[in-house]
Amino acid sequence: MSLWTALLVAAAIAFGLKLAGHLVPAHLLDAPRVRRITAALPIALLAALVATQAFTGPDGAFVLDARAVAVGVAVVALLLRAPFIVVVVLGAATAALLRALGWA
Q1: How far is the C-alpha of 104 from the C-alpha of 93, rounded, in Å?
Q2: Residue-wise over 67-91: b if at least 16 C-beta within 10 A, else e?
């Protein structure tokens, strides 16, 4: 399968899923359980993205480096109820400081 074929198939699947979402009857989407699940999906997707970016290397192997420590600092800041911008700045500053000290 060529790259263009895979891209077109992926685009068709994405379009089909979007279309299917519009065809679902509204009463099925109004159920409390469905609302709870759909409210939690962005959180789960963001957590998976952060974990993938923070703990995997270029070859897909598990690594512990400055990114992992920065995520740990950000989690501690979140637990201490720091404002979001402070969490981001602390995480970025931690990663920058560790990389400047030579810990890639």
Answers
A1: 14
A2: bbbbbebbeebeeeeeeeeebeebb
Q: What is the pTM of this model?
A: 0.61
Q: d(Cα 91, Cα 68) in Å, to the nearest integer?
A: 10
Cα(89)–Cα(99) distance, rounded to whole angstroms? 15
pLDDT tens-digit profile of 7-47?
A: 999 999 999 999 998 898 988 888 999 999 999 999 999 99
pLDDT in tens, 66-103: 999 999 999 999 999 999 999 999 999 999 999 999 98
Q: How far is CA 38 from CA 10, 13, 50, 61, 90, in A?
A: 23, 20, 19, 31, 30
Calpha distance 54→66 (Å, rounded): 9
